[in-house]
Amino acid sequence: MNSSVKRFLTILNRALPLTECRCGACGRIAPHSDLKGGSSLCQDCRNALFDAASAPCPGCGQFPTAPQTVPTLCGECRRKPRPWRRVIVCGPYSGRLKDLVLQYKFNQRLDLGRQLQECALAAYTTAMQRFQDMQGPELIIPVPLHGRRLLGRGFNQAKEIGRLLSSRMGAAIEQRALERVRRTVPQMRLARAERATNIAGAFAAKQELVCGKRILLIDDIMTTGSTLEECTRVLLAAGASEVDVLVLARA
C-alpha cells in the first residue's frame, strides 16, 4: 500500500469514525459501547437470552417462581442432592433462547453458534460473581454424542458452545475425556422415569485425562438431568476433583 493511499484511509477514518456496528442476533445498529466484552449482541438481545437478575437453583437449574438474585437450593435438591457441585443455566427453555437452540441444533444454523457461545459465557461469568468459592475450570468437557449421531448431525453442539469459554478462560476442550460407549434411544423420546435407565452405563471417562481436574461439563438442554448426572458420576469415579455443569436452557 503506497503512502498516498494510507493518507487517504487515515483521513477517511477520522472523517467517518466507525462508532456503530450491527447486533449479531437482531441486526439492529448498536454503538460499540453496547457490545460489552467483545460481544456481538446488543443489550436487548443479551437480556432476552440471559437474565442476569434471576438465579436458578444451583442443584437442578430450575428457575424459581419469584426471581432471586442469590442462588438457593430448592427443597427437592436439599432432600436429594445432585452429583455435581453446581449447575449453571442461561435461561428457561422458552422464547428466543428455545428458538435459537432448535434452529442451531436441528436446522444446521451454525451461524447462530456465536450467539449461543456468548450466552453461555455471560451465564458462566455471572456464576463466577455469585459463587465466591468458584474457580475456573481446568478442563471443559462436552457431553459426547454417539459416533452415528455425530456423523448424522455433523457437529457436537455441546463442544461448539464451549469454544468461547475455552478461549477466554484458557481451559482446553477435551472430547477424548468422556466417551459415549453405548448408543441409546434419544432421551426426548422417553418418559421421565425411563431416562435414567436408558442412559445408565452409556459413558466412560479416561482417568489419565480427568484425574484431579476441575471439570466444566457442557450440554445444550437439561430436562430431567439424567444424562448429566450419569456423566458427572462417571467423571467423579475417574478421579475428577469437582464437576460443574453448564447448560443453555432448562426445560
Main attributes?
single chain, alpha/beta, Rossmann fold, 2 domains, five-stranded parallel β-sheet, two-stranded antiparallel ribbon, 11 helices
Task: Tell me what the structure shows.
Strands 3-9-8-4-5 form a 5-stranded parallel beta sheet, with helices on both faces. Strands 1-2 form a two-stranded antiparallel sheet. It is built from 11 helices and 9 strands. The protein starts with a helix and ends with a strand. Helices cover 39% and strands 17% of the residues. A hairpin with a 6-residue loop joins β1 and β2.
What layout of secondary structure does this protein have?
Layout: H1 3-15, E1 20-22, E2 29-31, H2 43-49, H3 75-79, E3 86-92, H4 95-106, H5 113-130, E4 139-142, H6 147-153, H7 157-161, H8 163-169, E5 172-173, E6 178-180, H9 192-199, E7 203-205, H10 207-210, E8 214-222, H11 226-237, E9 242-250
Parallel strand pairs: 3-9, 4-5, 4-8, 8-9
Antiparallel strand pairs: 1-2, 6-7
How do the helices and strands follow one another from N- to C-terminus? HEEHHEHHEHHHEEHEHEHE
The unreliable regions are none
* Termini gap: 55 Å
Strand order of the largest sheet: 3-9-8-4-5
Estimate the strand proportion.
15-25%
Describe the largest sheet. Answer: 5 strands, parallel
Structural class: alpha/beta
Q: What is the 3D shape?
A: globular
Return the domain count: 2
Mean pLDDT: 87
Whole-number radius of gyration? 20 Å
Number of helices: 11
Q: How many extended strands?
A: 9
What's the CATH architecture name of the largest domain?
A: 3-Layer(aba) Sandwich
CATH topology of the largest domain: Rossmann fold
